[in-house]
DNA topoisomerase
Amino acid sequence: MSSPPKVLMVAEKPSIALSIASVLSRGQAHISKHLSQEARGCGYLVLWLDCDREGENICFEVIECTRFPVNEAKKRVYRARFSSVTEKDILKAMDNLVEPNRHEALAVDARQEIDLKNGYELQLEWKRQKLFDIDVAMMFQKLVTEDGILEVIVVSEKQETKGRPSGLNTVNLLKVASSALGYGPQTAMQLAERLYTQGFIREWKNLMAVNIGFEQLGFKAVNSLLILAIPFYPRTESTAYPSSFDFEGTLKVLENNPSWRDCVRRLLAEGYHKPRTGTDAGDHPPITPMRPATEDVLGNDSWRLYQYICQHFMGTVSPDCKYVRTKIEFSIGGEFFHCIGQRVTVQGFTYIMPWLAINEKNLPQFTKGEKIEVSRVELYEGETSPPDYLSESELISLMEKNGIGTDASIPVHINNICERNYVQVQAGRRLVPTTLGITLIRGYQCIDPDLCLPDIRSFIEHQITLVAKGQANHSRVVQHVLQQFMQKFCYFLQQIENMDALFEAQFSPLADSGRNLSRCGKCLRYMKYISAQPQRMFCGTCEEVYYLPQKGTIKLYKELTCPLDNFELLIFSLPGPEGKSFPLCPYCYNSPPFEGIDTLFGSAKIGSTGKLGKGAGMPCFLCPHPTCRHSVVAQGVCACPECSGTLVLDPVSAPKWRLYCNKCNCLVLLPEGAHRIATTRDRCAECDSTIIEVDFNKKTTPLEDGATLHTGCILCDELLHSLVECRVHIRYLYRIVGAANSIGLFRLK
C-alpha cells in the first residue's frame, strides 16, 4: 500500500498558518520557516495567501522558491480562496482549490516595473536640518539645484532590536489606560480593582476570618485572635516577576480564550522567553491575568482593560522585535543628505502588541558611488509651535519621575484637580488648565514658588523612603517637615494680599473694565490698566499683576521699551502744576533687577492692615543701568542740595523744563520756553555735573546774535546759572547763586 501524498501548505501570516494547521491536521503539523527545505519530497503545493493581487503575486514567488516543475504546476499547485480563518471557511476553501491567477500576479509586476522606471520618489533629510536665515537657505538650494546629481557615499545596514516590555505595574497600567483606552486614572483603578475582586488578574483570595487560640502562640489564655485575610488590590510598583513564577501555566490558562489562542499556541510551540529584568520593589508581582474571560462576561470597559493586561503579559514572554536599519548617505553640491529605511525581520512581541510595531520603510537598492539624477529641490518653510497640553499619561510619568504621589495616590491627585475645576479633561485625555487653576498657580508663584514646584514633595518622599530603610529617624523627619510647612504657612498668610489682588484682577468686573495700555515684555500682548485703587497693570496672558505708584495719572511713554525686560515704559505724573513726572517700567518697578534699591512712592497698600503689596518701587530715575537712556546715569544732572539724592531731568516737562530729585520733593526750574533740553555724555571739569544742551526759542533766546543752541553746566555756566531756580518742598523759592561753598551740594555720587 502506497503512503499518502505529502502536501506543503504555505500561508502568508503565522496566525493563518496556525489556524489552518490546527483545523486540518488537528495540531500535529507545524509550518516550517524554510520553504525550500519543506518542499523536498512534497507532491503538492497549496497556497494560503491573501486573496488580493499582492497575495497572488506572492503565490508565484513561492512556486519559484519551492522549485515545483513549471510544466506540472497546473496539476500539483493549488490556490485556496478564503475570507476568514474560521473552521468552516478553511474546510470550504480546501474542498474548492483552484489554480493561481497568473494575470493578477502580472498586474502587480507591471505596476512595480512602471513605478521603478518612472522613478522612485525619495525624500532626503538635510544634514544641516534647518536654518533660520531664508537667504542662506536659498543659497544652499541654488547650489544643490545647479549640481543636480546625487552621489551615494555611504550604504550601511545595522541589525537593531526593540526589546520586549517588562512586567506591568500600576503606574504603567494607568498611563496606557489613559493614552490608549481613554480611561482616566480613577476609572482605570476602579476597573482594575473589579477585575481583582472577580479573580481575573493576579492572586485573589476570599475574605476569611480565622480564630487562632492563644495557646497555639504559647499563651495560656483562652482568648482568640481574629485574623482577616483581605483581597489584594491592583497596586504594585514592581516590574520584575519572581523566579518561581509559572509562566507556562499562565499561558495555558490564556490558551482557553479564543481571542489569542493562536498566539498562545505559537508561544508554547516555539518556546516562550523569560521576561526582561525589571524592578523588584518588594511589594507585589506585576499585574498578570489569572483566569480566561470574554467580553460578554466582563462588559466592554472591563474587557478592554483585561485584554490589554493579557496582551502585555504575552508580550513580556515573546521574543524581541528585530529589524534591519538601512542608512543611505548622499552628497550633492557640497551638501550632505541621508535617508533611513527599516525592515522588520522578526516581529516578536509586536505581533501581539501591534501598536508598538516598527514602522517599516523600504528603500530602493543603492550601491556606493552610484549617481542619481535629482528631479526637484524644494525649500520648506515652517515655524516653531508651542508644546501641547499635558496628557494624563504624561502627567503620570512626570509625577512618577519627580516622586509626587504613589501608585495608589496618583489617581486620587489627578481626580482631585479635575473635580476642583483646576483642569478640564479634553480630547485625547489632555489636561487643559482652567482660569481658576492658572490663577492659583500664579498666586503661589508670587508668594512662594516652592509651593508649586515638585522639589518639596520629592524631598518628603525621599525622607519617607529613608525612614522605611531605617536610615532616618521617624520623629525627626515628621517634626522637620511639619516645621517647614508651618513656616511656609505663616509666610503665606503674611503675603495673602498678593493672592487676593491676583484673583481680584482676574475674576472681578474691574479686570473686564480695564483698558489696554502697554505691552507685556514676556508675551508681547497688551496689558490692562486698572485705574481703581490700588491702580495696577494686569497681563491676562501671563496672569501677572504689576503695581504702580498711587495717586497720580498713568500714560504710555512714547511706546519706548525697557532695555532690560522689553516692557513698554509708562509715565507717572503727580497732580498739580509742579507735580513730578517720571518714566517707569512695570516689571522693574515690581521686581528691581538691582540690589539696594529703596522703595519709593509707596507700593500699593491693600486692605485694612496697611501692608505693602507687590512692588519694590524702582522707577527709571533710580535705575543704575549704564546704557539705558532713561536711567539716573543718563538723565541725572547733579546732586540734590537738600538730600543725598540726584537731580534728574524730567523728560516730559516741556515747555516748562525742570529737574526733580529722585528722593525728596526738590524741584529745579530750567529756562522756560526752550524747544529742547537734554543731557549729554560730557561732564563738567570743575564740579563733575552733567553738561546739558539747551535749544532756546529764537524769539526769547538770551544768546547774542540770535543763536539758540547752548551747552553748559547749570552750576558753573554763568548764563544757565542765572536762568535756573530751585524750589524745595514747594515751600519757598530762591535763586541759585554761585557761592563756592555750595558747589559740593550738587556733586553727583
